[in-house]
Amino acid sequence: MNWYAIHTRSxxxxxxxxxxxxxxxxxFLPLIHTLSRRRDRKKYVDIPLFPGYLFxxxxxxxxxxxxxxxxxxxxIGTDINEPTPIPDKQILDIKSIMETDVKLDPFPYLKKGxxxxxxxxxxxxxxxxxxxxxxxxxxxxxxxxLQKGAAAEVYIADVEPI
Length: 162
Known about the structure:
Layout lengths: L1 E7 L4 H10 L3 E3 L2 E7 L4 E7 L4 E6 L4 H5 L4 E4 L12 H11 L5 E4 L6 E5 L8 E7 L2 E8 L4 E7 L4 E3 L1
Antiparallel strand pairs: 1-5, 1-6, 2-5, 3-4, 7-11, 8-9, 8-12, 9-10, 10-11
């Protein structure tokens, strides 16, 4: 069993998550609670952290039932016919951040920077790239296969280099 990234039709992430759950397939759709501003009102909504993507935990042989689910565009892989598993550590890091009250934002995918590990607090054990933006420190978690990242604010005292 491995984690795989699923590319969905535009704005169909929640529907695909529901369809796959009904089939008994374990899914993970990280959502962030954000303020949506319309012309006439403001309202809080849950949007996907990685728009257009969700994750499934399945055996490679059972991915056909995932591929032919309504709303699924494709299963992400390095080869056109070969789905590529995502390392468990990357999914576990995002899950551990989602379980805390830490503010999480989408962030550009980074390759350069200092690799660090959080040594204290609710994010203990999470690894990522440390960046500074406007005087605040953030740890950027990467999903290499999707070339996407997410940033969570951290205290510099809780960080140790790897």
